[in-house]
Design a protein that fits this description.
eight-stranded antiparallel beta sheet, single chain, alpha/beta, Rossmann fold, 2 domains, seven-stranded parallel beta sheet
Length: about 550
């Protein structure tokens, strides 16, 4: 049975609308941009440019680009003046500014990169009246600052009308691990639903389609692929910016897997100073697994299977809830880039990076704009300029709405020969022929790789509160059905473009194993080998 969409409907009409739990919205101070009620976008001419697309963003925060003593100063001064007119103030975490400036020191290369790409979150707050007469007058008018939350969106439109571009100031989008397909579009009878589908331990069956492939434990009897890895002059390095890589027998050797990374004296990830939110709170009465528990570990296992020689660096940019504010993501990527560029310039092969695997993203409010989210796009493009191949998941919402950063992938043949192109990856079913029903589509999706019902690694300490449906003692043993959220065996199945992306990342790393230029440290060699790997896996893509 096929249900047709309304007459005249186009695929692009169905943009996913973020729906977040109350706990998530509170933790990240999130607003969802409503095209119906939000103030219109402002165009380059300062005039209204129509409604925006739905997006989730940190409601009281704007991102400003540049270092405190560099490019940021002029924009922040103008923002401060505007906020004063609007009865607001902007708050900046100066301790983080001081740390970055102190770490960069006199290193002109690091300072140059950070001044072009570093972002600072500016938190907007109501300016509270200090004199009693004003307080009384506002109270009589029913105005109480703490009961009127700030919205960064209209403030941003004021700045746009004054000529400030997306390269200077932008919303702080909420980025999520490539979200799971939310069911068929509404015209097929299933509402959009942002929670984990029922096969992930939440929700009810009517929101999922059989055969989409959920998270579940399996038994794998093959040995660690690293045991058959060849000796190479320099192992290709794959960065997994995701949830943490958990405990697993495959990942016990620090020579092949790195769980903590410091750059310029700053620990990257959620355990470092770039994360001001602290640990993810969990309800002690709820023992269910978080929606993205094991996500990064599963990705690392796929890369290990594809390229046993690869050295994997896990950068835990998000907790198991699968969310990270864009400013935190960009700053982690900025520092990774600094590490790599310094390695290229100083000829230190142990610090080089080769592939960056990103199984995360969001839907931008203005995807049709050529400069949509320049801040994230620029840092990823800079990785390509220094020879790092960036691979991004295309998303799992069965939509053609551009999913960033996958939507930054260039369109053939518009390639920059001096920059390894970002590649966006969709998902194939186990037959290797059909595209997964949940997979996003569009000209910005570069290719597909296997992504449904994959088998990979899970943290061996991952065990939720669900119990086997049947369990009974018999003699000295216990008979039971499979406990569907007990991953202590270390392996399981999962589906999504989140896992198609590392399939390609592992393929690119395997190409680099064969490339005689991989041990070389100069930028030209890095770009050549990165381009060669991409061209090998995507034959139509040539410099």
């Amino acid at each position: 049975m096929t249900t047709q969409p309304p007459d005249g409907a186009q695929p692009g009409d169905f943009t996913p609308v973020p729906v977040l739990s109350a706990a998530t919205a509170e933790r990240y101070r999130v607003r969802v941009l409503d095209p119906v009620t939000a103030v219109p976008k402002v165009g380059e001419d300062g005039e209204p440019a129509g409604p925006a697309r739905p997006t989730a963003y940190v409601g009281d925060t704007l991102m400003v680009r540049g270092l405190p003593d560099g490019a940021r100063r002029a924009v922040l001064d103008e923002l401060t003046a505007l906020l004063d007119e609007l009865g607001l103030v902007g708050v900046v975490d100066e301790s983080l500014d001081e740390r970055v400036l102190r770490a960069a020191g006199d290193d002109e290369s690091a300072r140059g990169i950070l001044d072009r790409l570093w972002v600072t979150p500016v938190r907007l707050e109501r300016r509270r009246p200090t004199d009693e007469e004003t307080k009384q007058r506002l109270a009589e008018q029913g105005y109480e600052p703490e009961r009127h939350p700030v919205d960064a969106w209209p403030v941003l439109q004021h700045l746009r009308s004054r000529g400030r571009t997306a390269a200077e100031v932008e919303l702080d989008h909420l980025v999520s691990a490539a979200p799971y397909w939310q069911g068929a579009p509404y015209w097929q009878g299933a509402p959009y639903w942002q929670g984990a589908p029922y096969w992930q331990g939440a929700g009810s069956p009517e929101y999922a389609v059989p055969g989409t492939g959920g998270r579940g434990p399996v038994t794998l009897v093959v040995a660690d692929p690293a045991l058959r890895a060849r000796k190479v002059k320099r192992a290709p390095v794959v960065v997994v910016a995701d949830t943490a890589i958990g405990p697993h027998p495959w990942f016990e050797n620090p020579d092949t897997v790195q769980r903590e990374t410091e750059v310029l004296g700053t620990l990257l990830g959620v355990d470092g100073p770039l994360n001001p939110l602290g640990p993810l709170p969990r309800n002690p009465l709820d023992g269910s697994l978080a929606a993205f528990a094991g996500h990064g570990t599963f990705i690392a296992g796929i890369i290990r299977q594809q390229c046993p020689e690869a050295h994997i660096i896990g950068v835990p940019v998000m907790y198991d809830d699968g969310y990270v504010p864009e400013d935190q993501l960009i700053r982690n990527l900025d520092l990774l880039l600094v590490r790599h560029v310094r390695a290229v310039q100083q000829g230190t092969p142990d610090e080089l990076l080769d592939v960056l695997s990103l199984s995360l993203g969001y839907y931008h409010e203005s995807p049709e704009d050529e400069d949509s989210d320049v801040m994230l796009a620029d840092v990823l493009r800079e990785f390509g300029r220094y020879g790092v191949a960036v691979v991004a998941a295309a998303g799992n919402d069965a939509t053609v709405a551009p999913f960033h950063p996958a939507a930054f992938a260039p369109q053939p043949p518009d390639f920059d020969p001096d920059c390894v192109p970002l590649v966006s990856v969709g998902s194939l079913n186990p037959d290797g022929r059909t595209v997964s029903y949940f997979c996003n589509a569009g000209p910005w999706v570069s290719c597909q790789r296997l992504g449904a019902n994959l088998v990979s690694t899970f943290p061996t300490d991952l065990d939720g509160d669900r119990q086997p449906s049947h369990r009974m003692p018999y003699g000295t043993s216990v008979r039971a059905c499979i406990d569907m959220d007990d991953f202590s065996g270390g392996f399981g199945t999962w589906s999504g473009t989140s896992f198609a992306a590392p399939v390609l990342a592992g393929e690119l790393a395997a190409c680099l194993v064969e490339d005689p230029q991989t041990p070389e440290t100069d930028r030209k060699a890095a770009v050549q080998r990165g381009w060669a790997a991409v061209s090998h896996e995507l034959p139509g893509w040539v410099r």
